[in-house]
Amino acid sequence: MAKFSNSISYITLGVDSLERSLAFYRDGLGLSTKGILGEEINNGAVVFFDFQPGLKLALWPRKSISEECGVTLGQPDSAGFMLAHNVADRAAVDDIIQQVTAAGATIVRPAKSFGWGGYGGVFQDPDGHLWEVVWNPHDGSAD
Known about the structure:
InterPro entries: Glyas_Bleomycin-R_OHBP_Dase, Glyas_Fos-R_dOase_dom, VOC_core. Pfam families: Glyoxalase. This is Glyoxalase. Residues 7-136 form the VOC domain. The chain is α/β, with parallel strands linked by helices. The protein folds into 2 domains: 10-69, 2,3-Dihydroxybiphenyl 1,2-Dioxygenase, domain 1, CATH 3.10.180.10; 78-135, 2,3-Dihydroxybiphenyl 1,2-Dioxygenase, domain 1 (Roll), CATH 3.10.180. The chain contains 3 helices and 8 strands; from the N terminus they run βαβββαβαβββ. The protein has helices spanning 18-28, 62-69, 90-102, and strands spanning 10-15, 36-37, 46-50, 56-61, 82-86, 106-113, 119-124, 130-135. A hairpin with a 5-residue loop joins β7 and β8 (130-135). The protein is globular and about 45 Å long.
């Protein structure tokens, strides 16, 4: 019997406008992609970005997720999920916050120091998904 493992292959974000989100992540953040794939398939339009080996970020319209999974399309809830991007130092946090601001992100928590020694800020993408950009001097997993 196959076992569920702790390895995640894809993180899929539901978006209201695939074109708008593609522009934000590709043009604003500089992530590499082949663009929108699967437009010829009903509910198939999707965008993929390669992250570290074995992990991809997918953008898929919320309406398509709802229809394909048989769940009710409700109102987005930004507080229900947050992604984090650990970076090498404090300056990288500031650089990325500046980059995402220029790309049109909403800064919901400006970069600040934390009592435990780290430093970070939080932004929302065009669909309200939260991303924390953080330097954690105790982690060792930053790029």
